[in-house]
Fold:
Amino acid sequence: MTAFPSAEQVRDAQAKLLRRRWFFRDCGVSLAGMAAASLLEKESLASSAPNPLAPRAPHYAPKAKRVISMFQAGAPSHLELYDFKPELAKRSGSLPPAELLAGYRAAFINPNSTLLGPKFAFKRYGRTGLDVSELLPHIGSIADDICVIRSMQTDAVNHAPAQILMNTGSQQFGRPSFGAWTLYGLGSEAEDLPGYVVLTSATGTSGGASNYGAGFLPTLYGGIPLRGTGDPVLYLTNPKGIDREAQRASLDTLNRLNSLALEAVGDPEIASRIQSYEMSYRLQSSAPELMNLADEPKAVLDRYGITDPAKPGYARNCLLARRLLERGVRFVQLFHEAWDTHGDLVNRMKHNAADTDRASAALVIDLKERGLLDDTLVTWGGEFGRTPMNQGGSDGRDHHNRAFSMWVAGGGFKAGHVHGATDDFGFNVVADPVHVHDLNATLLHLLGLDHLRLTARHQGRDFRLTDVHGNVVHGLIA
Structure:
């Protein structure tokens, strides 16, 4: 499927423009009268023109229709959170087996470094006895609602390329993000907010805006970051001397001119520009209302761990994610980059878990109570895992792309389920591997989109989120 005009449509628009110029030149028609009529016609056409973000039917009946991605950037250690390894604990301080390191290339450390056992105890939760770290008691309490994938794999070994791979299907800059592909395939149900919203906490992301950009798709499909302080979007407030009426008049004139250009050349970026201006205008009232948590009951704020509703942070972003979904936003992405633990592992893990555990679980519970979880895909995880070998003396782990854990929930995923397994050291996947491309194919499948058919032509060939890779993992689906 594609959102771009065909070459034939562009030629027809250009021919129409040439015929109009001939009419003005040779037929002696009043230019002023025709211009006035034309502008009135264009204003009517602009108001009824198809919205590039209008909801679209998926390829087949979906199990979910919206997404929340809780991206824990920096790569949380699966060995301290979701993948308990008693054997690793027993052999802590010894060298890893030689056969384990065959063909292995580490990001920074000498691979033949001593093993480091888990630094925290694990506890069993839920009907299935899911092992979850003592650091995450609130996530443990929703064990029966989530599906833990212990067999994730990726290709990249450094943060920026691994984050971009996870979010765009490629380690290279310039590809559309998962959220952009979702809007491209399904459109948005939000009238006064962007269809794809980004909320950040801690230090942002190593991969930057490439994690949520539109790539070669029209820019309208890219994620819109909302800020935690000041104007939710930069320059949202009108400058002094410009009131609402003056802004509307200037915007109407600009839209009429853009509509003329759009009809003439059919460039989808012009349609994006028109919609962006209109969205910015509506955001001036909708965004401040969204960010104001004064109408949320104290019990809800307490559940998320929000003590100051105006203070930005991960907990507030989780609550805002639920509010965004209720307003029709298709894709909400939370980025919390704080999990890079080459050293000071214990203290940093404690700090990050305290920042994210309560609010992550509260979001799932909140969605479930409001009847939103059944058709919302929720993901929690980072770009890769951490090594079972020690780094930084006695308290650190290096990057590890061969095996890591994340969890998913809602939208057709199996609940109270563990998928895949790693070896005794959490080093290699030994059962049911799930590559990043497989995960993306599965998420699209649950949204009713065939990852092989959701394509866009760029530089002479059709691209897709999973490109030439990926298989739907039916073992994750209820």
